[in-house]
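User: Protein folding is very new to me. Would you mind checking the protein record under this note? It all follows right here:
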Amino acid sequence: MSSDQKRANYWYFSQYAGLDFNAGSPVALTDGALATRDGCSTIADQEGKLLFYTDGVTVWNRLHQPMPNGTDLWGSYSSTQSALIVPKPGSSSLYYIFTTDSQADYPNYRPELHNCACLAYSIVDLSKADGLGEVVEKNTILYAPTTEKIAATLHANGRDVWVVSHQWNSDAFFAYLVTQDGISEQPVISRAGVVHQGRQEANGNARGQMKLSPNGSRLALVMEESGSEVFDFDNSAGTVSRAISILDNALLFAYSGVEFSPNSQLLYFTAVISEVDQPPYLIMQLDLAARTAEAIKQSRVIVGRYVRGIDDLQLGPDGKIYAATYLSDSLGVVEHPNRPGPSCNYRNDGLYLLGRSPNGGLPNFISSYLLPPDPVLEMPNVFTPNGDGYNPRFVPIRRQRVESASLTICNRWGQTLCRTDDLEKGWDGGESPAGVYYWLVRYRGSNGRLATQKGTLTLLR
């Protein structure tokens, strides 16, 4: 696991719920001070040790105490993505907390009041308060009005961070670049997709999650009343383009959560469907690797249903996607989110929270923290299918985060002797005599990256 991934190892969310991923599999926690309806954010250091967390209104330190000056931030308990914590590049102590307010008070927008429907930021300095942190700058407005959507990913340089939000009553995305010099004064503005606006004087379309893919190449969002869209994102320039409307089924409504698979090729979202005699709350999957926009739309498949409500989705450091479910003491879990269709294995009661309720909201992270490391594959250079049971097959010595692979074995004349997609089965040598042979492996990692390895092997009998 990379050091950046460990920054997402602690989660505090909903009604005093928490998770610790440092052991690999999540361990439920009950020591958190956060109780909120929707958005929140948590940050750990590069070793996976908790630093602080927030619901966008209050900031708690690692001892679960409110930080000095750490109250009355301009997020909201009912904002979908109320907060997002971003470390300042090049600093070991400074962190930005970006906040979005609830849209409920947007018609009465006044910048001097808490409810201002704005994107704002505050700054935490962890060198203060004996290393427990203090909020040293609070509620600096970047722009208004905004929706309740906010997401972030690393710049292509691997150091700086793009923070992306969406303007209300507009089709504009605002991307701010966070560098060692601070937050860019002027955002990159992209106009793509539909206008985010209310219906019948309502503002439900301001709600719903927005996510950037783990590899930083895609952006997806849901609008509570109007559906969902997916876009290309350029993590060098900060631009959003090529909108695809992926939900246009009149039976679907009340969209809420969205998340990418670890390999960034599958998209999951939650919605409600008006079907008779069926659980109305759905988790659906789309194949973003489909060749055309229409093919992406047609790839839609239901992978889970629930009778009581499914809200936010969030990819975890363990490569699973977690779903916030209502009236429950467990999180839903997509066990294998890189697998297409029902084979992804969604379970409603996937992770017990020790009596805590997920209640709708999950923490928001820089998406790059959840990108799996590159795959590792190591093949031997000799094997001995001589009947003694020792080293009888040509199989990997080491295999990590390899999702699929194909192995080809050829002799010195270029004749193919073996071709298999089962690396663990490998090659038993068949009737081939002792000698030198050539192998080629093409494989895909759990992060979606393709790789090729080749070499020679010696068969001894």
Notes: The first helix runs from residue 3 to 6. The radius of gyration is 24 Å.
